[in-house]
Amino acid sequence: MTGSAHPRAVAVTGLGLITPAGIGREDTWAGVLRGRATADTDPELKDCPVDFSCRIPAMTAEQGSIGGRKAWRMGRFTQLAVLAAREAVADAGLDPASWDGARVAVVIGSGLGGAAHLETQTLRHHQGGPDLVSPSLIPMLIPNMAAGEVSADLGTHGPSLATETACSSGATALAVARDLLLSGACDIAIAGGSEAAVTPVVTTGFARMGALSGRVDRPDLASRPFAADRDGFVIAEGAAVLVLERPADAAARGRRGYAHLAGAGLTSDAHHPTAPSPGGEFAEAALRAALAEAGLSPADVDHVNAHGTSTPLNDRTEAALIARVLPHGPSVTAPKGVLGHTLGAAGAVEAALTALAVRDSRVPPIANLAAGGSGCASGSPYDIDCVTGTVREQRVTAAVSHSFGFGGHNVVLLLTAP
After folding, report:
1. Would you say the pTM of this structure is higher than 0.85?
2. Distance between CA atoms of residues 179 and 189, nearest Å
């Protein structure tokens, strides 16, 4: 049985993206295909151990318009989720004015929620006392507000959920949304991830634990997934939202979809707060679970969208996993070389990019990774087929997207051609 025909497959019928590579789905995709890093010096981080990040480009008034007075009550991560959700729903050809909102679910993941707002309000409290603390602090802080405000903006009344599994939050949201669809709890699921936590305290926290690249002299070369000399990730912001429907429902509307989400595997390392399990056995279990659910074998996978953080431990463990379970050498890309690490949004961003690779039969190159670099040398744990230099023209029929998070969360999504 093919993944597309599997009874647990759902169709991806709409995509919304806001990332450091561009505002909107197609601008982001074009930026990722160019394969050039977006990292740059960040004035807001000037006194931090690492003073660069990947920021979303300035939005025009039209691009960033929430409308009315709603924006005042939303943290930036919530605003990004609302804008991405609007794009995804429009892309799917759906009209919130005419759907049955009780049959529409929303699931949005975020790793840190409104950490940026908490940071600024803590400073105001310290400097001027409680009267300076905004009454909107709590609704701008709590991570469920992205899902809540997307639901309010689009008029949905089905399940509205927030997932928090650190850097795999967005991927977890997609897996949960798919299960809601398959359970019959909804007919449409709007799901993804959003993060806007590039702040001095959060950045310093990641730097102090040794997770960030220290290439302050060349931020554009800092994020280098699978390179032998990688030294950490680049913190970033962004959002991605996908519309999921049962294939028959999508077909009834005349929609084929970008791809089918045909399998999902979720496991826990139960090993360490931040380090992956060295053997990668539970990440492997997640990959095999996704394959089994889709009715596919490892040999059917022709593309991997890697978690690829550019940290020494993650990339080594992930590359060994790919080489061990997929020894036939599917193409491997890692968008964090271009986008940086969007934390809780990353799994959704990368799932969306995987769907676009299926649509266009194009695999983006990994930024800052030279062809034949020692990080991917033959015979090493890195004996994987990393795409470097330029776009690879390749028909993608079955792809996996890996997401791994602090706390040992492993999520693997399997997407197939519709």
Report:
1. yes
2. 10
Catalytic residue among 48, 167, 186, 386: 167
Q: Is 247 helix (H, G, I), strand (E, B) or coil?
A: helix
Which residues lie closer than 8 Å to 185 by C-beta, 6 or more apart? 105, 158, 159
Measure the CA–CA gap between 125 and 108, rounded to whole angstroms. 30
Residue 323 has a CB neighbour count (10 Å cut-off) of: 18
Residue 164: partners with Cβ closer than 8 Å, 6 or more residues away: 109, 110, 111, 113, 143, 344
CB atoms closer than 10 angstroms to residue 72: 10
Q: Are strands 104-109 and 160-163 parallel, antiparallel or unpaired?
A: parallel
Best CA proximity match to 50, nearest among 318, 315, 341:
341
Q: What is the CA radius of gyration of the chain?
A: 20
Residue 343 has pLDDT above 80, yes or no: yes
Active site residue 307: yes
Per-residue pLDDT tens over the stretch 353-399: 999 999 999 999 999 999 765 455 444 556 899 999 999 999 999 99
**CA pair distance 37, 368, nearest whole angstrom:** 8
DSSP bridge pairs for 23: 18
Q: Which of 6, 260, 307, 402 is catalytic?
A: 307
Tell me if residue 341 is catalytic: yes
Query: Of the listed 260, 341, 402, 409, which one is catalytic?
Result: 341
